[in-house]
What does this fold into?
Amino acid sequence: ALVGEPASAQQRRAADAPANDDGFRKLAPGVVTEIPPKLEEEETFSGPREMVGLLKRAPNLGWDPKLLAESETLQAMASSVVFRHAVWGLEFGFKPMRIIDVDRRLPDGTTRNERVYYLVYYVKNNGRHLNPAPEADEQGNETYTPQPVDHTVRFFPSFVLMSHDLDRAYLDEIIPEAMTAIRRREDPNRTFYNSVSISTVALPVSNEYEDNSVWGIATWTGVDPRSDFFSVFVQGLTNAYRWQDPPEALSPEDPPLTGRRFQQKTLQLNFWRPGDAVAVREDEIRYGVPNKNQVPASRTADDVLKIYGLKDRVDSLWVYR
It folds into this structure.
């Protein structure tokens, strides 16, 4: 269905679409792009690094021990700490970016027709998450080895559509009218969750005999039609993160964790649209980054990569932000 297609025509398309044995609409091969989780052993630990909060708030830890090795003092131990935590990740699959026009009810009771960009997706827990398990070597020293573990997780998503050429970000919105229309258009028999309700669903481990995927829809409004190069940043697919405690950001009088900077591991999905700002069509939206033969005449391939903040031409990548 195209933008502006009558609702009756969309309903006929849905009714005529073939279904699987489970009653869901059958999707053609290649319609869904699947991105597996990318867990790294290095994400299970951080350090050795200073415990800045302790060293800054208790600056008088230095002393000359008489019965202990200097390396066993609190100051020495706080100067070289390895922080460890378990890491999990989810598989993410999505259909092509689409657009639909809906009549949205406003707080004053009136309605307004709005253009909604939306992304139909699923998340799946394949297990084999990483848990740093302690082990003792032959000398009795404790080491840690990430071990694969299976457990249930939940998806607390954040979807941000970033227009790179206009330097403008759009947050995912909860639009009940759009969810109803999109479900009718995509698959009336399937349950789709928004970015809040999907967090209430537990995701047990899937296997070759049981698929526990959960489907959702991310929606955005107000996207500037002049935008040609944009990305969708998806957070919540993993609990991997990075953090920094800049020493200059914390003084002895500050509360703990003052100045700490967190960066979450985020999936970046790149898109581009070669159309104009007058007639916006969903079939013009392309997944990925344009190649050198598709770049507009006013730009170069290097210019486009700089717009996306990329070194190489890739459709998707994992970043920290």
Notes: The first helix runs from residue 7 to 16. The longest strand covers residues 111-124.
